[in-house]
Amino acid sequence: MDVSITHLLITLIEHLGLTVAAAFLILNMGAAGKTFLGKHPWVEKAVLTCFFGLFAILGNYGFDPVHDAFANLRAMAVVTGGLFGGPWVGLGAGVIAGGHRFLIDIGGFTSAPCATATLLEGVAAGLLAGWYGSRVMNWKVAFGLGVAGESMHMGLVLLFAKPFSEAVDLVRLIAVPMIFVNSVGAAFFVELIKGLFRERERRESRQVQQILEIANLTVGYLRAGLGAGSAKKTAEIIFRQVDVAAVAITDTTHVLAHMGVGADHHIAGEPIRTAATGMVLDDGLPLFRHTKREIACPHHGCPFHHGIIVPLKKGESIVGTLKFYGTREKPLDKVHFQTARGLAVLFSTQLELEDIQIQARMLAYAEIRRLQAQINPHFLFNSLNTIASFCRTRPDRARELILDLSSYMRRNLDQSKGYITVQEELEQVEAYLAIEQARFGDRVSYRLDVGEGCDNWPIPALVIQPVVENAVKHGITPNEKGGTVTVSIGCNATLLTVRVTDDGVGMSEETVGRLYNPEELAAAGEGIGVRNTIQRLRRIYGPSCRMVIESTQGQGTEVSFSIPRNHPSARP
């Protein structure tokens, strides 16, 4: 009896090693791994159900019959599936594996209790994951569920398998090996998936850091516009930073720069050769091509087998493309695709700086020109450093902050239409505050109180956000304990009233007086945002529209002003 138990234990352990190794290989196979490690909408839940159900079925095979029954590793797969995928995956995997166990041994004296036990193990693991979330995704919980589930399995065999004497002999032989190996297997399986998650997070963190570093290195070039010189410098930087066979940048008709292999026929200054690039220029959608035929380069000896083409835009207009090329030796994958798309978004923002500089010379309003020229590089670099600090520990938060920064930059740099709604201005305020909260944590908090009917009120762009920025920079952050900025907006039929209040360090009467003196402020290099807002309100709405500033040192500051809905002085 002891020899049989030992032999069975060794056999189960051998099969456990093969099963875990097979799962590891499948989860690391490109698209399969990305599917299993992504979020789980219904389609992916179905895939997960089939995956764990299939592995549970495989756990039935490769073992010699024991008293007309089967030793197996089903529990390992269904418990892991339930913990990883939740109730529906646990139920589905249990139904697949339990149903298979019943069908391969219809009439067998243990088929019904074994199938029932498998179903209950999957449901229990899934419900536990549904109640407690990702906290149960650890080896201790998996091991405990394996022990409990297989113990329940043995109990069902004793209760329902007939004749009872044969059930006792069977349980006496298989109980210890099956409880031990299935429990250890579930623990291993869970840790395998967690390890793949950690590796994906590290990879995404490196990707975000790489994008930010490239954007930081190229900002000085693309701000001057998309030309041969700026494209060449940008392509050189990307080629050094990203492991691809070649990097190319085009405008709408010609290749502006090409770095890497294929430079013998993808030549800067010549017309675009590939049909795939033409498709991106036509419809504005990024493409990932996986064959030479899809890339459609007419040159017979073109070495490229993979191509990623993403559009570069100014506003809604497509002005060119960024392209990554791969060869057999250096293939491209989805990480390269995401990197290219992220760079394209940042590059498009940088390219818009060229239009901003042109607009700054052409716009009729000096106040808009000054605002567009007052983008604070320190705020940008501090924001990038803050985002970089989140990349390793909280990559999802880093991606959110990149979007906030992109939104902030776009709105700051594209104010040519003059008037926007209160709601659009507050979106800019919230994008700015999200970045500052990431930098300063709990030291910066805010409240928005917007009265009914105020959301669509037309106001000049960037009249609230600079005041909020001033409150954070000069009121809240110098305070050791931080503070709260409150934006209150109310309106009646003819007038919109805006109040920005902070409970920060406050100002002296002398400092408040300087805020009303633009020349003195300009000489001191202080209060740029408030100075611009005061001047713009006076220019657009006349001297009757003035900003009121009240402040007490050590208690805080309130800035208020009113904007009429229709005013003869208002100019778009």
Automatic annotation (TrEMBL):
The chain crosses the membrane at residues 7-26, 46-63, 75-97, 109-129, 141-161, 173-197. It is a multi-pass membrane protein. It is an enzyme of class 2 (transferase). Keywords: ATP-binding, Cell membrane, Kinase, Membrane, Nucleotide-binding, Receptor, Transferase, Transmembrane, Transmembrane helix, Two-component regulatory system. Its EC number is 2.7.13.3. Its main location: membrane. Residues 463-567 form the Histidine kinase domain. It is found in: Cell membrane. It catalyses: ATP + protein L-histidine = ADP + protein N-phospho-L-histidine. This is histidine kinase. One of its GO terms (cellular component) is plasma membrane. Pfam families: 5TM-5TMR_LYT (PF07694), HATPase_c (PF02518), His_kinase (PF06580). It comes from the Bacteria. GO terms for molecular function: ATP binding; phosphorelay sensor kinase activity. InterPro entries: Bact_2-comp_sensor_kinase, HATPase_C_sf, HATPase_dom, His_kinase_dom, Sig_transdc_His_kin-like_C, Sig_transdc_His_kin_internal, Sig_transdc_His_kinase_LytS_TM. GO terms for biological process: cell wall organization.
